[in-house]
Amino acid sequence: MRFDLLALSAFAPLVAAHGAVTSYIIGGTTYPGYEGFSPANSPKTIQFQWPNYDPTMTVSDAKMRCNGGTSAQLSATVQAGSNVTAVWKQWTHEQGPVQVWLFKCPGAFGSSCKGDGKGWFKIDEMGMWGGKLNSANWGTALIVKNLKWSSEIPRNLAPGNYLIRHELLALHQANTPQFYAECAQIVVQGSGSAVPPSDYLYSIPTYAPQNDPGVTVDIYSSKATTYTPPGGRVWSGFQF
User: Fold this and answer.
1) Cβ distance 110 to 71 under 8 Å?
2) Rounded CA separation 237/240 (Å)
3) Do 163 and 105 meet the contact criterion of CB atoms below 8 Å apart?
4) By CB distance 3.0 to 4.6 Å, which of 64, 165, 171, 201 could disulfide with 205?
């Protein structure tokens, strides 16, 4: 019995260390997200339902896209130029980037909008600053502190149905990246017409190779003084 208790106590911190987006704040309204450990009690939500808090370990895993979620019952309206704020109930890893992506649906939400194909584009990111990888100068350290992240929807983005994807990449284990990503359904309103050019578009999974230096990195032994998050550049909404 003592062995079992010791084993459970050793396992508990690993579970507690994981996290996921559990709600969104859009236009002053809070939209509950999914509660993976109590699916029977989860309300209808704008978020793709995910099965657990466990990380995705490889860039080619299908869970890279939306943590295994494929559909949601609701959507939230957001005005182009306003913010979407994702909220976490728990997060403990200070080393790693935060990235926020959008995907424009070809039509209505549902079976025709699961994020398939080369249509994902990045609207926000924060990697590392201060020149030291083994530090708390990372985007995810701000999640530890605030348990929320706000991103502006590009002001001149073309209106329509979109998926928004929040991704935390934890780099605290050497050469063992851990991805945590969730998706939600939003309806962007506005008079804009801008769409990202093709060189800003990516497929998820596999937006970067596993050996990308922004994915597989040893923050303890590396001498690097800069860090570039994987997945290309942020598109701010300018029409080219």
Assistant:
1) yes
2) 9
3) yes
4) 64
Percent of the chain surpassing pLDDT 70: 90
Question: Which of 204, 194, 235, 210 minimizes the C-alpha distance to 117?
Answer: 204
Identity of residue 162: Y
Q: Is the dihedral of CA 110, 115, 116, 118 positive or negative?
A: positive
* pLDDT for 218 beyond 90: yes
Mean pLDDT of the chain: 90
The per-residue b/e assignment along 49-83, b for 16 or more CB within 10 angstroms, e otherwise, is bbeebbbbeebeeebbbbbbbeebeebbebebebe
Which residues lie below 8 Å from residue 159, measured CB to CB, with a gap of 6+?
Answer: 80, 187, 188, 189, 190, 191, 192
Confidence of residue 13 (pLDDT cuts 50, 70, 90): very low
Cα angle 33, 39, 45 (rounded to 5 degrees) comes to 30
Residue pair 143/91 in contact by the 8 Å Cβ criterion: yes
* Amino acid present at 211: N
Q: How far, rounded to the nearest angstrom, does the alpha carbon of residue 201 sit from its chain's CA centroid?
A: 16
User: Band of the pLDDT at 34, cuts 50, 70, 90?
Assistant: confident
For the whole model, what pTM was predicted? Answer: 0.91
Task: At 193, list the tokens.
Answer: 């017409």
Q: Identify the burial level of 121 via C-beta atoms within 10 angstroms of its C-beta, where 0-12 means exposed, 13-18 middle and 19 or more buried.
A: buried
* Section 173-188 average pLDDT: 97
> Which tokens in the block code for residue 150?
């706000």
